[in-house]
Amino acid sequence: MSRTNFWSGVVLALFIGVGASSAASVAAVDTPNGSLFAWRDIIGANQSATIGWSFQVGAQDLQLTALGAFDDAGDGLEDAHPVGIWTSGGVLLKQVTVPSGTGGTLVGSYRYLSVSPVTLTAGQTYMLGEYFAPVVDRCGTACGDASGVFGSQTFAPGVTFVQSRQNRAIIGPGSLAFPNLDAEIAQSFFGPNFLMTTADPISSPEPASWGLAAVGVVALAASRGRKNMLSFHREVLRCVSFRS
Predict the structure, then answer these.
(1) Which of 117, 151, 199, 218 is the most buried (most CB within 10 A)?
(2) Are the beta carbons of 76 and 200 closer than 8 angstroms?
(3) Which domains does the chain have, with CATH numbers?
């Protein structure tokens, strides 16, 4: 390989490393255990409602990338469930309908559908809700999908639980609606959930700065020739270790 091609390859590799994203997709809440209640166990016969929870965003903005519904056994949902997220003032930001069966993507104990990213602003409160359709009184083995109500929950960094939420239940079928009421339970109805993208908490220089630094290191090493290759490697390792 010629010296020119070698240095070109090094520059490209450095820029690829600099541009790589350190973001990770995580669930807003993890519910590994607890009491599960089918919809008919939560509400009266032939009634429907939207239930869920509210939360506050921490010091950094978050990017919501998917909405999902709880699938307790991971074997598919009994019914399709509309899921939505609202501002505290009731503005619907995004909604999906997670299909019955195994149509959604299973992550942990929840099935998700991807959405175009939604920015959740630092310090603001949001409402998450899932609609449950009515179930007959003597439901047998078809009593509606379950929600986790009591148990252990782990919230992702930047997500602080505020309150369990619901709207007023109605007789017969309804639709996804803003959960404007306090459900008055200590924890929540963990039926709805969402995936979000969080930034790497380690502060690092802007990509443009790293690009300029990389070019400077490469140019310096190239001008000094082959005999200073070891020094060049040391400079590159110093830059990488500083960034990480």
Answers:
(1) 218
(2) no
(3) 24-198 (2.60.120.820)
